[in-house]
């Protein structure tokens, strides 16, 4: 049964439009009946469209798209996603899950332009998980946000049930179960790192407060906007009613880059590289850990005998990859960052393969590695696939690794002092050890 088959059935034009949103893999057939169940949002007043369709291929009830006064007046939902369908359910497909609310900030930006389509396609949450996308933009980017929503409309994703757009985080983050915080100001010419910390820190303080006020109490937050570790710290400090454990700073792109470089050097396909940890800050002090990583199940140092390359070239290559890419591309990595955000989410919603782990920047309180408390630091984690994670215990350290980790730790502690006014910890004092470039910056 294809979409083409469906659209030839005797339906009204409204229904044809809707049924053309369905892909055969997401449909369920019982005898000659086809059922699709669009989950209802838990919110009392729908902001975007909530609808339920059941149809028979031979005899299709002609559904009426109802534009209620309330729906007309809603500015948050977008276009086709504002339709309310008044349909009678004849058959419900049991496999559909409850709608998942995903908020994305910086939704009109370059990274989101790749990520949103991955989320809507089912790549992250699976082929029977309906998704609502709640898109946050800035005042300046609002028109572009409408353009993004139009492209989402035109993509006819069957799993995409709601799209709402807005510039007020207190509205957009309502009931969010995932918050992907990508929107941030780029570092302008001549801007000091401390200036960037302050200007973006304010965005993440506000968004932390908004999450605290209106998001799901178990929302998982992934901070991408730079400087992402300290932004994540600011965000969690401003959201005291959400577990600090739920906040992540994205270092998965760095992990993916490190795996790629090791695979290249060892002459193996990159799926043979496992147990890759990025320690520390998403900056050039980050530490790609070749001591604990494995290639084909063996320690990297047994496979790659050129230890000088590992300590010098490999480490620097990973740390500066973003900058090199900008020189080639003329802009910072967007597609591979979106891939890595999807990877980071998948790592939390699917069980980690036996013996392996992944890297993510998380809150350090209670960590078993002796890293300073109360910062957000990239560390090795495992997940049961329930959205939560635990830190990996059996990790080996040597002097080289300890020394490098300490440098990244010192940088994050200095960044923390720089944003004390945003974390509720007094007066800020900025003594950053050096102005390390962020990956992705010139
Ligand atoms: N952690 C990582 O691995 C990683 C990798 C690459 C880029 N980044 C960072 O991700 C961020 C976004 O990158 P991009 O390439 O998508 O940038 P972009 O400039 O293309 O998009 C950013 C968008 O955010 C919007 N925005 C600004 N302030 C906002 C706010 N307060 N609320 C909502 N939206 C806001 C802007 O209008 C813009 O549309 C940057 O900070 C970049 O440094 C992080």
Automatic annotation (TrEMBL):
Domain Lactate/malate dehydrogenase C-terminal stretches: 251-421
InterPro entries, sorted: Lactate/malate_DH_C (IPR022383), Lactate/malate_DH_N (IPR001236), Lactate_DH/Glyco_Ohase_4_C (IPR015955), Malate_DH_AS (IPR001252), Malate_DH_NADP-dep_pln (IPR011273), Malate_DH_type2 (IPR010945), NAD(P)-bd_dom_sf (IPR036291)
Subunit comment: Homodimer.
GO biological process: malate metabolic process
E.C. no: 1.1.1.82
Cited CDD domains: MDH_chloroplast-like
One Pfam family per UniProt: Ldh_1_C
UniProt similarity note: Belongs to the LDH/MDH superfamily. MDH type 2 family.
The name this protein goes by in its record: Malate dehydrogenase [NADP], chloroplastic
Keywords: Chloroplast, Disulfide bond, NADP, Oxidoreductase, Plastid, Transit peptide
GO CC terms of this entry: chloroplast
UniProt-annotated location(s): Plastid, Chloroplast
Catalyzed reactions per annotation: (S)-malate + NADP(+) = oxaloacetate + NADPH + H(+)
Domain Lactate/malate dehydrogenase N-terminal intervals: 101-248
Keyword flag NADP: yes
Presence of the UniProt keyword Transit peptide in the record: yes
A Gene Ontology molecular function term of the record: L-malate dehydrogenase (NADP+) activity
